[in-house]
Prior knowledge:
Number of helices: 6
Order of helices and strands: HEEEHEEEHHEEEEHH
Largest sheet: 6 strands, antiparallel
Low-confidence stretches: 23-32
Helix content: 25-40%
CATH class of the largest domain: Mainly Beta
Radius of gyration: 25 Å
Structural class: alpha+beta
Strand content: 25-35%
Number of domains: 2
Shape: elongated
Amino acid sequence: xxxxxxxxxxxxxxxxxxxxxxxxxxxxxxxxxxxxxxxxxxxxxxxxxxxxxxxxxxxxxxxxxxxxxxxxxxxxxxxxxxxxxxxxxxxxxxxxxxxxxxxxxxxxxxxxxxxxxxxxxxxxxxxxxxxxxxxxxxxxxxxxxxxxxxxxxxxxxxxxxxxxxxxxxxxxxxxxxxxxxxxxxxxxxxxxxxxxxxxxxxxxxxxxxxxxxxxx
Length: 216
């Protein structure tokens, strides 16, 4: 009965841990903010408006395209190609800030809105301009780390602001949270083996085999 209670409790703990891992994975999948990958294309969603989005590192990677994360701190060219003609008539501004939220990939628009001094965190800002063709900005990154891109578009007839944010990392800044998740899943598996008696049976089997071999 006692073992049955322990097993039931571990099953509950396992379900909680699995649910926790699922939340982390799902939030990470949705944490890319306004930039999403569609087949081989990257799209940025500025409210209901969309544009093709790509980043180039011309000094080191020539014509290679990046969706968000950049492998090194260098001169970077951000390009938006409009998918909706209405964007050609809207003032659009582009800002890059250091990730002072500390949330990395999980940063959301509400987190950015809570930053008290946005200008202090800003490393690049392009004031609102109307670009009828392709919207392009160039920024020289000098430090590795997490950054957040912020794009806003404002229709001139309504004045309503549409915003997209996209957290991204520059350079090598560690291996992220995956080791934690893998370690947690291994812990869950070992816990299951322990409470189900698998480890005890395995130990008894090898002890018995060792005794048999030593008696030969």
